[in-house]
Design goal:
mainly beta, 5-stranded antiparallel beta sheet, 6% helix, single chain, globular
Amino acid sequence: MRNPLRRYLLVLGLMLGLTGTAAAEERHRITFTVIDFPGALATLATDISAAGDIVGRYCLNTSCLRDVTGNWHGFLLSDGEFTSIDFPGAFHTNAVGINDSGYIVGRYRDVIGGPFHGFLLTGGKFTSIDVPGAFSTRAYGITPGGEIIVGDYCTDPGCIRPATGHWHGFLLSGDGFTTFDFPGGVLTQVWRISPQQNILGRYKGTDGAFHVFLLSDNNFTSIDFPGATNTGGDAGGINPRGDIVSSYCGDSPGCNPTNTGHGFLLRRGEFSSFDFPGSTATLAHGINPPGDIVGAYADTSGSIHGYLRTGAGRRLFDNLVGAGEDEGRDR
C-alpha cells in the first residue's frame, strides 16, 4: 500500500514552523473517520495493518444484529477502495485479522446457524482451519510473517453464539495446534498475537463476567478496566509496543455493538477511555504499530458503523466515498 503520508506531514510541519510544544499538543488531538461499506446496513472494522489496510465485515440485511441467520461478508479496505471477501460457498464470512504481509484470517459458516470454521487468505487463496475434533473454530490473529495463527474453538453445539459454550484458545504453528485455557476460566477466547508472541484474549470467570487477559512467557495476566463490570468486547488488539485496546461495559454477557460499551486503550500501564463522538456504544477491535485504532460504534438510530481513530492530521482515506469525520479527545 502506498503511504507518502509521513513524508507529507513532516514537510508540512516544517513549513508551518510548528514548535516542539505545539507538535506535542497536536498529537494529543484525535480524529475519527467513519467506515461504511457501500450499501451496507451494518459495518464493523476489526483490524488494521501497519500500512493502514483495514479488514472487517458488513451486512446487507437487518437480521445480522438480531440472530445467527445474518449473512455477513468480509471486506478489505486498502488505498480507499473496498474489496469484498467471501469464503467460497460460505453463507457467512468475517475477516477478523490482517498482518503486515497482507495475510488475512477470519471465520466462516457453511450453512445458516451452523458451526464456524477458521480461514487463512493469502494471495487470493483460501485455506480452511479447523481444530481436530472441534465443533466450531475461529481464527482471529496472525503474526507479521504468518508463521503463527491464533484463535479459539469449541467442542459442543452450544457454541453457536460466540459468548456461549465451552470455548478454548488455540495456537497454530508449524508444530500443529496447541490449545490452552485461562486458569479457572469458564471459557477462553483468543484474539491476537504480537510479534513478541504475547497473546491477547478474554475469558469468562466464575463470577459470570468477562475479563481481558495477556499471555506472556507462559504467564497469564488478567486485565480489567477500573470499575467496569465486564472488560473485553467481541475483540481486541495488541501492537508491537504492547499497547492494548478492547472495550468495557456494565452489561452482561459482555460488550457488543448494540449496548453501552466504551473503547479503551491500555498504554504503559495507564488506561484511557474513548467513544466515537455522539455514539451510544463504541467498541475497539484492533491497533497497529503507529497506534491507529479500528472498531465499531452505534449511532443514535441504532445503526452500526466502523471507524478509524488516528492522531490529528492523519488522512488515510482521502478518497473514501461516504466517509465522515469528527474530532474528539480521550476522556
